Amino acid sequence: xxxxxxxxxxxxxxxxxxxxxxxxxxxxxxxxxxxxxxxxxxxxxxxxxxxxxxxxxxxxxxxxxxxxxxxxxxxxxxxxxxxxxxxxxxxxxxxxxxxxxxxxxxxxxxxxxxxxxxxxxxxxxxxxxxxxxxxxxxxxxxxxxxxxxxxxxxxxxxxxxxxxxxxxxxxxxxxxxxxxxxxxxxxxxxxxxxxxxxxxxxxxxxxxxxxxxxxxxxxxxxxxxxxxxxxxxxxxxxxxxxxxxx
Length: 246
Ligand code: IPE
Ligand code: IPE
Ligand code: MG
Hints:
Elements: H1 2-9, E1 18-22, H2 26-32, H3 37-58, E2 62-69, H4 77-100, E3 103-108, H5 116-129, E4 135-143, H6 145-161, H7 172-176, E5 189-192, E6 211-214, H8 224-235
Parallel strand pairs: 1-2, 1-5, 2-4, 3-4, 5-6
Helix pairs in contact: 1-8, 2-3, 3-4, 3-8, 4-5
């Protein structure tokens, strides 16, 4: 492991500033172990800890984790209830370590759709971790990218209607400023676990030039070593942004 970290650090200008992860495969991990789906979600918490710590070690500035999609509201009520209770447990059990490690937590998504206890847990973790300077941890909860884009369009339309903005002034910079992700640069690297090759309504606007990495590893089996391997793979790539190589 120290070798992997050393390799990453040997190209300091190529460390991804922002890594986003679609944490997938908890249910399949559980069935592989003859366990209920909920145990897969529980086991996935350990991987969250791994990637938070691993991101700090590797020098990543922003880590965005897709924890619950807008479409996930269509899952059985019992599964949703379990995931929400896990969120509260995460907030309570991790808060001290997050503060100690200098992690500042943010949440993006339609939080209004959640129940008061979960919203309270989210509010608490955001407030207590404010000012953390080592890592910005962005949790996408009740998040859907199309809904985020519509919300941005509506906000801009309201500004135009109020006479505060000219339609001709709307450009990519102004549009991006109306998204939840306004404070952070676009992800450099997107990791999806469990061997799926799709975006599942995650950061559609922000991923325009992100490097994609998929691994068959199921989320509960994902460790910081896997994160480091993904970063090393990223460091070997040539990002052209539509231009030709000099
Ligand atoms: C990811 O694991 C966690 C969430 C989407 C909340 P899944 O629950 O989607 O696991 P699989 O894809 O069924 O294996
Ligand atoms: C994407 O995983 C959402 C999260 C990881 C939170 P899903 O398991 O919900 O996505 P699909 O249904 O396989 O596309
Ligand atoms: Mg899944």
